[in-house]
Amino acid sequence: MVYLSLPLIWLLDSLFLLCSHAQDQSPFQATASKKTYGPDGPWNAVSVQLGHPAQDIDLYPGGTFASTIFTNGLCKGMTAKPCGSGGLFTPEDSDSIDNTSIQLQPENTAVRGYWSDSAQGIDFSDASSIMDDLQLSPGGDTGSVVANLSIVMYSNVSIANPDGSTYPPQLGQMSLGAPNINQTFTRGDGEPAVNASLIPTYLGLHKVIPSASVGLHIGSAALNLPLSLWFGGYDAARISGPVSTHSYADNPSNRFNLDLFDVGIGVDNGGSPFSYPKKDGLLASGNSSITNSIPIDMNLAAPYMNLPNSTCAAIAQELPVTYNAKYGLYFWNVEDPQYTKIVTSPTFLSFTFDNEFIVKVPFQLLNLTLDAPIISTPTQYFPCQPPQDATSQVYSLGRAFLQAAFIGVDWASNGQWFLAQAPGPGVGTVPHQLPITSPSIAATADDWASTWKSSWTPLPVTASSPEAPAATTSLGHHLSGGADAGIAIGAVAVVAIGLAIGYFLYRRRGSQSPSLSLLLPGHKDDKSDQRHDFAEGPPQYATAEEPQEMDIAPIRPSELGGGDRRSELSGVERFEMQQPSRRGTSQ
What we know:
The protein is an alpha+beta fold. It is built from six helices and 29 strands. Among the domains are: 6-211, Cathepsin D, subunit A, domain 1, CATH 2.40.70; 481-511. The longest helix has 27 residues, at 481-507. The radius of gyration is 25 Å and the shape is globular. The relative contact order is 0.15.
């Protein structure tokens, strides 16, 4: 007879529960905060309660593995205000805290850009790994309590500007989970390992939600577009068009990473505030080292779009902005007539990723506000900035970009994650919740531009204000010139074939008609072995083949040894202080 140890039985049971996707459970919606936060937003947040008795805290959603909170010691000695405005945790008041079981602690060393992956200059000391209970629905039922949540608690943190001046953070972040069932910490005394909980897998294992998955659109606080965060599913209304699918497990740096091929400027409808209706090629403009693409992370822990310095400069050259070296940011020239035209008309930045997948970010979302404690007078700024750790060159797209994008992840399918165009302020307030029960999310036929119609003021078409090019589809991606030509030739060929078949049938009336299923719009070749794929959309959009890149291998920077990411395979949490570096681009 074979006997199984209790830990092994528990592990097998846990894996079964994760993969079974209990269909009788519904996705769980996190509670959006009634407040918005700066000092570089405004940004939406979630409201939770931590510890027992419960302490109210607001957090930004984002990051993986451990969540991040600040204690009541954060603001001691801080002269800059506000400080920790989202709420500070008092650990000595919690009866449920466990601050002794996890022996491996973060090194209390000043680390530049730690949890923001070098996007910001973050210095900290006095940090500790703890576990405590998190209530996802403040004042709600006990089913939304996550026991023994993995948390890194900070009591001394500052964020540095490029000139060396510092200011305190306002909110920590609530982790979106990880591909592991728990975050496991080994013990040096021979005792059993400590398992700290992660929100999606904990709720999935306890059958609160149908799967260990997350669907998120942070929305826009400035435009009253509320945050949408669901565990076990997503709000389908927060997706406009196709969905790009990627593998978290395929990325050795443990990030939501993909390749960025270009950045452009476009106009959806009406006249253009620029001397052109469309301009591409801004990613590599003025930088010969960017030969094809750059790897880039989706980084909810950071506020800005952290792009190569040359890319930010190329975009800024097209805008009425002025660079401010103290903050390393571009300030909008609000008195310039071009400013109002750009931030109120249907203009956008376009980001082209793998497989020519495009996300459009209206300039209205990129008209953000710097406020105290960064700057004394509220100032409008354009959120493009190179990474603040110049040695790492980890490029990322933070909350500024993700106002316009949906991001989701299914941890039970080995970390399949999803990126899609998110709608604008006109999307409505009634969610269309769907569970994530397979490693894909369906595309929608929702018209992205219509959700912005009430927020835009199109410009008249004049000789100096060229008309925007007509939109080809509402799915938010474009085809290359070669693909367009191929489609035209293919259409002619289909017509010719159709005529030939018709003539053949006319001559052979008595015979059975041949099957034309391969010519129908809904037919789709099997591309399931591709790493990146588009969820199938409505049949009318399925006739075009995916664009093919030229036969040139992209030069992809490689990771060097080290990095602050955690490795769970060995059961040991690493807190290494060197940031990963990437080669192949220069600022």
